[in-house]
Design goal:
By secondary structure, this protein is mostly helical. The protein has seven helices and no strands. Helix content is about 45%, strand content about 0%.
Length: about 180
């Protein structure tokens, strides 16, 4: 409603935009709405986006299902709620289709966060994997280069300390600091 008050005072759109911290284009649009429909045309229409397709009762039920855990609903591999699993659960229990991103937003709204499951075989032997990794790494690891002074330039030596002392002009110029 601040915009309506400013328009009633005949303040320019650029000044309205500056004061309300919006784009000039928005200020022009709002002024057009105000001219056509008055203050009521500038009233908020609520949050944008689609409305939640689950009723408050269904949301409470969903929170209860999430509290029970994934194993209770057929995912026994690990105890993690992924967004894809929650979208599937919503479809099974409430016959409502949710995308993975929509399920993520819904989970956050209910105070949950989607987890990413570890993609490992249940029969994995961690000790054998570690031993194999160490043995293989020792075979493929090459010894590193010897540490020495190097230079990126082909014409300049790496360091004054590495220059030969017996060449003409070696002691003439003091090193720069």
């Amino acid at each position: 409603m601040q915009a309506a008050e400013l328009y009633e005072q005949e303040i320019k759109q650029s000044e309205v935009a500056r004061r309300l911290r919006v784009s000039v284009k928005s200020a022009y649009h709002w002024q057009q709405l105000w001219r056509d429909g008055g203050r009521g045309a500038l009233a908020s229409r609520g949050p944008s986006g689609s409305r939640c397709r689950l009723s408050p009762r269904c949301l409470e039920e969903l929170a209860g299902y999430l509290e029970e855990g994934p194993a209770e609903h057929g995912w026994v591999e690990d105890q993690v709620w992924t967004a894809a699993r929650v979208a599937t659960l919503i479809g099974r229990k409430f016959h409502v289709s949710y995308s993975v991103s929509g399920a993520t937003r819904l989970m956050h709204r209910l105070g949950f966060s989607p987890q990413v499951p570890a993609r490992r075989v249940a029969e994995r032997d961690e000790q054998a994997v570690t031993a194999r990794r160490e043995a293989t790494w020792a075979e493929v690891k090459e010894p590193g280069r010897r540490a020495e002074v190097t230079s990126a330039s082909r014409t300049k030596p790496g360091s004054p300390a590495d220059r030969p002392k017996d060449v003409p002009g070696a002691g003439a110029a003091a090193p720069r600091s």
